[in-house]
Amino acid sequence: MKPDVLVVGAGIVGASIAYQIARRSDLTVLALDKGSGPAEGSTGASSSISRCRYSHPDVVRLALHGQNAYRSWAEFTGLSDPRSRYERTGVAWMLGDGSVDSDLARLTGAGAVAEVLGPDELRGRFPSVSDCIEPFDLTGEIAHSCRPIERFLFEPDGGYADPSGACADLVDATRQAGGEVRFGEAVSEVRSSGGRVSGVVTRRGERIDAGLVVNAAGPWCNQLNDLAGCRLRWTLKPTRVQVLYRDWPVSLGPLPVLIDASSGIYLRSDAAGSRVLFGSVLAADEEEEVDDPDDFRTGADRAFQDIKIHALHHRVPALEHRGTVAGIAGLYTVNREDVHPIVGPTDVDGWWVANGFSGHGFKLAPVIGSMIAQAVTGVVAPFDTDVPMSLFGVGRDPIGVIAKNVLA
Predict the structure, then answer these.
(1) CA-CA distance, 46 to 79, in Å (whole number)?
(2) Residue 375 backbone dihedrals phi, psi, to 5 degrees
(3) Which residue ranges form the domains of the chain, and what is each CATH number?
(4) How far apart, in whole angstroms, are the C-alpha atoms of residue 339 and residue 334?
(5) Predicted confidence band at 274 (pLDDT cuts at 50, 70, 90)?
(6) What are phi and psi of 43, to 5 degrees?
(7) How many Å apart are CA 212 and CA 1, to the nearest integer?
(8) Closest C-alpha to 367, from 351, 383, 380, 345
(9) Packing angle of the helix pair 163-176, 361-377 (nearest 10 deg)
(10) Which of 36, 161, 213, 373 is the 20 to 30 A CA-CA neighbour of 320?
């Protein structure tokens, strides 16, 4: 087969691109992935949180449009019984009082639902969660005295989904729409003809010609760009990021997605409410760059576990100081210039990219697929975004952000 569009990488972003093109056109679409099945790369280690607070109003809108797809997942994918479902827990931003009003205005101005709550509302909805906003010394060397937060931003429609299930759903939806997805297919060569990319050669030696090739290979994106002779001015670094889990007693009640500036962690419910998932929102924990995405430590570090469990107990004082903490490590591809992705055509004719998501890939995957599919097919479909792809264009200037980390 000679596909009209060949997508390299079938994680949550690549699978979304393939599905979005297949569902709205007669173009032949093929997605290749080096893994043996869905979500073996960055997607499987994602915390899969959906929230709308971002620095840039258009990115707020993109996150909202992506959230709309996750909240109506069966309708969006066209699957009668999808694996993933959206858990609408709300997102509580405990960042201090300084940014509440500006954050509220930016979110509501972009069409997202947000409100300002106080400590009484927090305790009423989530009784086990502490309302302390005083910075917490994780080393234990500085005495701590709690100070209640006065106001915080709350996104009632925020929540999370199942990243592996959502990726598998998009693979199924692509196939149902007439596209093809093949696993265990690594690309070893990018072919060119007449000054443009004309296809790839797989590790098995199969030559696949294509009208357009899209690099959605996650942490392997630099390897693919090098094969294509694509020299980007963006610094895209595969970066090791850790996520932890421990049991959650049902007696402690529900949890929101919670972003905690006082101790630098985020947390959310997991495994149907039987576990809590938590990790870091600190830029210092997004600095461990990995040279080879096929060779890095996939377990969590003991020192990381010891520090972050201390932070979790501060935020949830009633959580018993016993129980096993487990963890995994996955890879973000961090765009060191502005922690936002680069999306669309490059200077190499026939070679497009969707790279450098910096921890935002799951939130934005439906709309990245929408952007590329609209550009390729010229067709608008339900759940599309109206934010132009040029926002993330390869030739753009860096986007101004509040912080160069996952909270950008």
Answers:
(1) 23
(2) -70, -35
(3) 5-84+162-234+337-392 (3.50.50.60), 91-157+237-335 (3.30.9.10)
(4) 6
(5) very high
(6) -60, -45
(7) 14
(8) 383
(9) 20
(10) 161
Closest to 19 (Cα-Cα) out of 38, 2, 41: 38
User: Quick one: DSSP state of residue 240?
Assistant: E
As a whole number of angstroms, the distance between CA 282 and CA 5 comes to 38
Tokens of 123: 């305790």
- 339-362 confidence digits (pLDDT tens): 999 999 999 999 999 999 999 999
Residue of 64, 57, 149, 176 lying closest to 109 (CA atoms): 57
Strand 5-8 relative to strand 212-215, pairing? parallel
Nearest Cα to Cα of residue 23 among 169, 160, 212 = 169
pTM of the model: 0.95
Q: Which helix (H) or strand (E) holds 309?
A: helix 302-315
Q: Residue 202: which residues within 8 A CB-CB, separation 6 or more?
A: 32, 185, 186, 187, 188, 208
CB 320 within 8 A of CB 309: no
Alpha-carbon distance 93 to 383, whole Å? 27
Separation between Cα atoms, residue 108 and residue 40, nearest integer Å:
36
Q: What are the tokens at 370?
A: 């929408």
List, as one string, the DSSP characters of 120-179.
Answer: HHHHHH-TTS--B-S---TTS-S-----B-S-EEEETT-EE--HHHHHHHHHHHHHHTT-
- Residue in this structure with the two tokens 């090739």, named with its chain if needed: 213
DSSP 183-252: ES--EEEEEEETTEEEEEEETT--EEE-SEEEE--GGGHHHHHHHTT---SS-EEEEEEEEEEEE--GGG
- The DSSP string of 367-391 is HHHHHHHHHHH----TT---S-GGG
pLDDT in tens, 246-272: 999 999 999 999 999 888 999 999 988
Angle between helices 361-377 and 57-71 (to 10 degrees): 90
Q: Is 366 helix (H, G, I), strand (E, B) or coil?
A: helix
Token pair 């009484």 is at which residue? 120
| Residue indicated by tokens 């405990």 | 94
CA dist 296 and 283 (Å) reads 20
16: its two tokens: 């979304």
DSSP 8-state code for residue 283: G
Q: How many CA atoms lie within 13 A of 128 on its CB side?
A: 20
**Residue 353 DSSP label:** E
Which amino acid appears at position 298 of this protein?
A: T
The single-letter DSSP state of residue 11 is S
Residue with structure tokens 């357009």? 212
